[in-house]
Backbone:
């Protein structure tokens, strides 16, 4: 039996594995997907990362390709698979964790393959595991194509006709731009989340702003150790962050129409906050996620359903750790270049105990 079980073979889990291997800790990484990197490959076809390749490396292995290019989702998935192979990390794929409980001072990890006991468990998963769709979605007409953003891959999945995208965050804005450019009249419902004040692919971003934002502001200033970081954490942890690639002017120029929040369904059609009934052929839910950790049978969750921890270390349940959560320690904690510091901290804690 391994000393430590890591749940999730994404950038967070692999980073923890890298450090544990160098500290001589016996561990096993479990992942529900068939291949390492599939969590990226399964997202919509046109998805590109928001960070350029120079910030997409995890510890010990440079991301291939031009430094200022924005990798595709498949390139990221293939990089993670190559990383696990290069460092010979013990990853067991097609292994879905059904339950983690605490018994007699050990963690019992029950999967679809077997049951493991371990002294430590690292939950190396983002907070984006269980798609959230409002209950009234079931009242929409069966003639309307409904997809959550996790199910949307390409415009060919849609009916001819108008598209209503519910949720105006980054996923909603990116998908709206794609459906609009493919001939669908597109409506975007939800509050204005704002946008970053520069173009991520512009020359100022490449030369000055990206290093300043990603390496200094997101990684060093906006952390749980600073007053401003703690204030920002409260604001972004639940409502979500600003648009990164898209701009209101760009979306308006593409013909995307902003509409109020969707509040329900009437006669099988979407009903908006201002009383408007939308006669659309498609609805794409970009309404976010629940953490999806119902299988974690340990009392460590707060009133919002978020796990309680100290920069990834769960003091209430010794031996339980988290990596990859939104703003785990800093705003960069869910960014590829930011997971290494969190992984190193957690691996050092495991090795010491």
Residues:
């Amino acid at each position: 039996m391994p000393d430590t079980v890591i749940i999730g073979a994404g950038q967070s889990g692999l980073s923890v594995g890298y450090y544990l291997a160098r500290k001589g800790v016996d561990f096993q990484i479990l992942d529900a997907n068939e291949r390492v990197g599939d969590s990226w490959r399964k997202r919509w076809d046109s998805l590109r990362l928001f960070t350029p390749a120079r910030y997409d490396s995890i510890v010990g292995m440079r991301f291939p390709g031009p430094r200022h290019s924005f990798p595709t989702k498949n390139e990221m998935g293939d990089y993670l698979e190559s990383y696990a192979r290069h460092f010979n990390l013990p990853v067991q794929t097609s292994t879905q964790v059904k339950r983690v409980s605490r018994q007699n001072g050990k963690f019992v990890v029950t999967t679809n393959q077997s049951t493991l006991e371990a002294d430590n468990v690292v939950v190396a998963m983002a907070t984006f595991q269980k798609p959230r769709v409002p209950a009234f979605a079931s009242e929409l007409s069966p003639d309307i194509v409904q997809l959550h953003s996790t199910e949307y891959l390409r415009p060919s999945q849609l009916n001819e006709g108008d598209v209503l995208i519910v949720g105006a965050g980054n996923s909603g804005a990116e998908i709206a731009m794609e459906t609009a450019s493919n001939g669908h009249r597109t409506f975007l419902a939800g509050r204005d989340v704002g946008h970053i004040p520069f173009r991520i692919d512009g020359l100022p971003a490449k030369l000055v702003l990206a290093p300043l934002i990603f390496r200094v502001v997101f990684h060093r200033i906006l952390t749980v150790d600073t007053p401003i970081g703690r204030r920002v954490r409260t604001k972004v942890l639940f409502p979500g962050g600003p648009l990164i690639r898209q701009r209101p002017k760009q979306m308006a120029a593409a013909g995307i129409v902003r509409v109020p929040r969707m509040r329900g369904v009437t006669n099988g059609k979407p009903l908006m906050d201002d009383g408007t009934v939308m006669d659309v052929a498609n609805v794409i839910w970009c309404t976010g996620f629940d953490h999806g950790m119902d299988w974690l049978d340990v009392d460590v969750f707060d009133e919002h359903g978020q796990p309680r921890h100290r920069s990834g270390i769960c003091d209430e349940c010794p031996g339980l750790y988290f990596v990859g959560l939104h703003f785990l320690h800093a705003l960069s904690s869910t960014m590829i270049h930011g997971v290494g510091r969190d992984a190193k901290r957690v691996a050092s804690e495991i090795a010491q105990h």
